[in-house]
Design a protein that fits this description.
The complex is a heterodimer.
Chain A (H helix, E strand, L loop, with lengths): L1 H34 L2 E8 L14 H6 L22 E6 L3 H5 L7 E5 L2 E3 L2 E5 L4 E5 L5 E5 L12 E3 L6 E3 L5 E6 L7 E7 L4 E3 L5 E4 L5 E9 L3 E9 L5 E2 L2 E4 L2
Parallel strand pairs in A: 1-16, 1-17, 3-6, 5-11
Antiparallel strand pairs in A: 1-13, 2-12, 2-14, 3-4, 6-9, 7-8, 7-10, 10-11, 14-15
Chain B lengths: L1 H25 L11 E4 L2 E4 L4 H12 L38 H10 L14 H13 L3 H4 L16 H13 L3 H4 L38 H10 L15 H14 L5 H9 L16
Antiparallel strand pairs in B: 1-2
Helix pairs in contact in B: 3-4, 6-9, 8-9, 9-10
Classes of the chains: A alpha+beta, B mainly alpha.
Chain lengths: ~250, ~290
């Protein structure tokens, strides 16, 4: 009888220990995969610079596409309350393990539409696949111009109307300018960052970097005309980190 | 007395040498580690170290000590010499964004680049040229870290026919070569005036009507290769994804019909009464 009790006790104890261990391991994975985040707003301090209109008269197709909505340069786009659009936020220091090495499975699209790039700024992880597409009935050539010394090799491919998508990726972190030689006003960016979690600000300057495990980080904000700024951020379990940035208008 | 003079002159000498030392640091020749670079052209093996004297004598004034295209003659040379450190080359048989084959560089040295300061170096022996290819490669770490691309496949050249020239004109219209090269191939398309190379310098589209030789060769296979690989570092893109191999030959024939030289293509185009493409017409649909 006594022995039986002893036996049952050890079984229960081992189950409890097992469940506890499993909870510990799974719990860690859950938080690593999705719980933590960093949010904030990026603003412009001062008067937004005038964005010049684009003269597309060399290509009647492009002119027609913008007949009711004139195209402007997109270096600095300011929304409500001074929110800055197209700012890329990424974790420049503090990521370790799978959060650093895991490449996002999402395959973002860089489209040539109405003779401009949509989006104007495309954030990517190193080795993350992306697609270049064209929605236009005019020929483009897509010509990213990275520095080959980084490991990113420049290439130049044509995309006439109806061309199939081009699938590519970049090997190293770099801010890469993308151009079309046929339409010299076409100008965009591929912002390649190291480490998966990143975000791009919306029209109001808001952003959320998801999938950040708890820890201490340095967040960098990159804006094409104003360069980079960094901030230290702490993310705790169940408590997102916040980092607001302000760029001074030049 | 004498020793103090010695001391002073040493001190002055050391101070005078300081800027020299910092200058040396700014322009390092750090390619020694790649001096063992080789090239392989058929049965010939080129050795970088054997090209040192030839490079210093014949190439350095334009291409520069560091291979960055910043030689003494840089200000007077247009188009500007390549920056060999970047490993980006116009004339390749490999896809855009990849390193060329050793043979591509070997051919470029012999062929020279028409309408540039790069002459035909046909005076070099094949061994000397192979050595120079290895020397050119030793300037860029890319030749250690990467392999050259897989060369594009060029099917055998078909017989030229009137139908093929007409089909070539449709390709010219569909992929819109005329945007830069002009509807008659006169390099006066709507985008021609604003073309720039990767370094932001103004660059001209090729004019097919002048009787000039294209920079990367003027044989039919060269023409095929030029638009299917693109000329990296320039606005000329690769059309490999958008022109099928058979169509590519059609385009070659049409391009030859634009040239002033007498050719079967030109005669056939004349018989057909072929007109330049209409830039305002909707582009022909791609064949399925």
């Amino acid at each position: 009888m006594k022995n039986q009790w002893k036996h049952a006790f050890s079984v229960i104890l081992s189950i409890v220990v097992l469940v506890y261990c499993a909870a510990l391991i799974l719990g860690r994975e859950v938080s690593a995969a999705g719980e933590g985040k960093i949010t904030g707003t990026v603003k412009l301090d001062g008067t937004a610079p005038h964005m010049k209109g684009i003269d597309m008269s060399k290509d009647p197709y492009c002119v027609k596409a913008h007949a009711s909505d004139p195209a402007h340069l997109e270096q600095v786009i300011v929304g409500a309350n001074g929110g800055l659009q197209n700012v890329v936020l990424y974790i420049s220091d503090g990521l370790t393990g799978s959060a650093l090495t895991e490449v996002p499975a999402a395959e973002p699209v860089f489209d040539q539409k109405n003779c401009v790039y949509t989006p104007h700024v495309l954030a990517l992880d190193v080795n993350q696949k992306f697609k270049v597409t064209t929605s236009d009935q005019t020929a483009h050539n897509i010509h990213p111009n990275p520095n080959p010394m980084t490991g990113n090799i420049p290439w130049n491919q044509s995309q006439p109307p109806g061309a199939p998508p081009i699938e590519k990726s970049w090997k190293a972190p770099e801010f890469i300018e993308v151009k079309c030689n046929i339409h010299p006003w076409m100008h965009g960016w591929h912002v390649v960052v190291k480490g998966g979690p990143y975000a791009t600000t919306d029209g109001s300057g808001n952003y959320t970097i998801n999938n950040v495990p708890p820890g201490n980080y340095t967040v960098t904000a990159w804006q094409e005309a104003y360069g980079t700024q960094t901030q230290k951020v702490t993310v705790a379990a169940g408590k997102p980190g916040t980092a607001d940035f302000t760029f001074k208008a030049k | 007395m004498r020793s103090s003079f010695l001391k002073w002159s040493l001190l002055v000498g050391a101070v005078a040498a300081l800027p020299l030392a910092s200058w040396a640091q700014q322009t390092p020749y750090d390619f020694e580690s790649r001096m063992g670079m080789e090239s392989h052209i058929g049965k010939i093996t080129g050795h970088a170290k054997d090209a040192k004297a030839d490079y210093r004598r014949y190439c350095v004034s334009c291409h520069g000590e560091l291979g960055d295209g910043n030689g003494e003659s840089f200000p007077w040379v247009d188009p500007k010499p390549r920056d060999f450190q970047l490993g980006v080359f116009k004339c390749r048989s490999t896809p855009t964004g990849t390193l060329p084959l050793d043979e591509d560089l070997f051919d470029t040295i012999a062929r020279g680049l028409d309408r540039s300061n790069m002459p035909q170096w046909s005076t070099f022996t094949k061994q000397e040229r192979a050595d120079l290819v290895a020397w050119v490669k030793h300037f860029s770490p890319r030749w250690v870290n990467e392999k050259p691309g897989t060369p594009i496949q060029i099917p055998p050249e078909p017989e030229v026919t009137a139908e093929r020239i007409k089909a070539g004109r449709d390709v010219f219209a569909r992929v819109q070569c005329w945007k830069c090269h002009g509807v008659e191939g006169k390099a006066n398309g709507p985008s021609a005036a604003t073309l720039t190379d990767d370094l932001g310098r103004s660059i001209a589209a090729f004019n097919f009507t002048e009787g000039a030789r294209p920079k990367c060769g003027s044989t039919d296979r060269d023409l095929y290769r030029i638009f299917m690989t693109g000329l990296d570092g320039t606005p000329m893109p690769s059309f490999a994804d958008n022109i099928k191999p058979d169509e590519a030959w059609d385009l070659v024939f049409y391009l030859k019909a634009l040239e002033p030289q007498k050719s079967k293509e030109k005669a056939l185009a004349k018989q057909l009464g072929l007109k330049p493409v209409d830039p305002n017409a909707p582009p022909p649909a791609a064949p399925q």
